[in-house]
Amino acid sequence: MTKRIKRWAVMIIFTIALIAVGFTIGTQELRVHSEVESGFEIPSEETLKEDGIAILSYHRILSDQVSLRVARGMSNNNQLSEYNITKHDFIKQIQAIEESGAEIISMDQAQDMMASQIQPIGKYVVLTFDDIAESAFKNAYPYLRDNNIPFTAFIITSKVGQYDADQKLATWAQLKEMHDSGLATIALHTDDMHYLRNDKPVGALPAYELDFQEDYERSQETYRRHFGEDARYFASPYGTITKNNVRFLNQQIEMDGVFNLAQRVITTANPHKGTLDRILITSKNWHSFQAWLDFK
Ligand SMILES: [Zn+2]
Q1: pLDDT, tens digit, for every residue of 63-109?
Q2: Pairing relation of β-strands 52-58 and 279-280?
Q3: Which of 110, 148, 220, 252 sits in a 20 to 30 Å window from 232, CA-based?
Q4: What's the 280 CA to ligand 1 centre distance in angstroms?
Q5: Residue 142 is part of a domain; what is its CATH number?
Q6: DSSP code at position 284
Q7: How far is ligand 1, taken at its centre, from the CA of residue 189, in Å?
Q8: Low-confidence residues of the chain, pLDDT below 70?
Q9: Helix, strand, or coil (residue 95)
Q10: Quick one: pLDDT at residue 10?
Q11: What is the domain range of residue 96?
């Protein structure tokens, strides 16, 4: 083989691998977010709410690197291009929130407002990260720390520091560092039930309810070992769990909030149906969230 043919072969294999990985992850994530419209647009009835609390759900925050730009250029309906946010875009989004006059508050502040049943006046934003990958620790946390911005991280307790699918999750030391900064609320995202059976999240399957409840106890035990206290918030993997699981979590005395994904802004006019709405932010739907920030 000449050098040129070899180089081409390597490039073609690399391209096929990137498309395959992106396509597999993308279709899986899009299929399971049943409550969320395709494209994750925020409906206009939500963006026209003058006051309220928007709880944002982020995943990976990637450094703006060549491989991501290549992947984004090649395919437009997969997780690699849509579900991840680059560090550059993330910082721009946080700045846009602050420039709009909306206030970024901690989960506890939001919880106090929701519990008080008094209509919030003005716009409030809570930042959350599901799974909290190492990429979010490296690319989002330094900016949040330097600007004193609170956030919440939902962790899969048995997977801390390990690889989940194609992402390396933040380590206990990294979680501790964020927790000890006083800015991070570390919360639960199951112990080991962040996977699908027949394309459905196991937490959303009645057959797994007993397992789910035992899994919750294990995740609290692990959490207590590391932080010396109970976790007080829980985010459903893939944004959805069964009604019985919601009821079970809300019965736990230590639980202050159970979260889904539903692209809705919370006002106290919203009936609390056991789970609190969060808005999934992708690389493509920011403009619809910006419309809410801009609506005065
Ligand atoms: Zn997750």
Answers
A1: 886 445 545 554 444 445 567 899 999 999 999 999 999 999 999 99
A2: parallel
A3: 148
A4: 11
A5: 3.20.20.370
A6: S
A7: 7
A8: 1-3, 5, 10-38, 65-82, 270-271
A9: helix
A10: 63
A11: 42-63+84-294
Distance 8 CA to ligand 1 centre (A): 37
CA 156 to centroid of ligand 1, rounded, Å: 8
Distance 114 CA to ligand 1 centre (A): 24
Q: What is the pLDDT of residue 31?
A: 40
Q: Is residue 225 part of a domain?
A: yes
Distance (Å, whole) CA 25 – CA 4? 32
CB neighbours of 263 closer than 8 A, spacing ≥ 6? 35, 36, 37, 40, 41, 42, 43, 46, 277, 279, 280
- Joined together, the tokens standing for residue 243 give 């009604």
Q: Which residues are paired to 276 by β-bridges? A: 259
Q: Is the dihedral of CA 238, 243, 245, 247 positive or negative?
A: positive
Q: What is the pLDDT of residues 138-155, one digit of tens each?
A: 999 999 999 999 999 999
Dist. CA 238 → ligand 1 center (Å): 6
Distance 9 CA to ligand 1 centre (A): 35
- For residue 100, how far is its CA from the centre of ligand 1 (angstroms)? 29
pLDDT at 34: 38
Which pTM value belongs to this model?
0.84
Q: Is residue 74 part of a domain?
A: no
Residue with tokens 């990985």: 21
Question: How confident is the model at residue 117, as a pLDDT?
Answer: 81
Residue 78 covered by a domain: no
How much is the pLDDT for 249? 97
Question: Distance, CA 58 to ligand 1 centroid (Å)?
Answer: 10
CA-based radius of gyration for the chain: 19
- The whole-number pLDDT of residue 116 equals 85
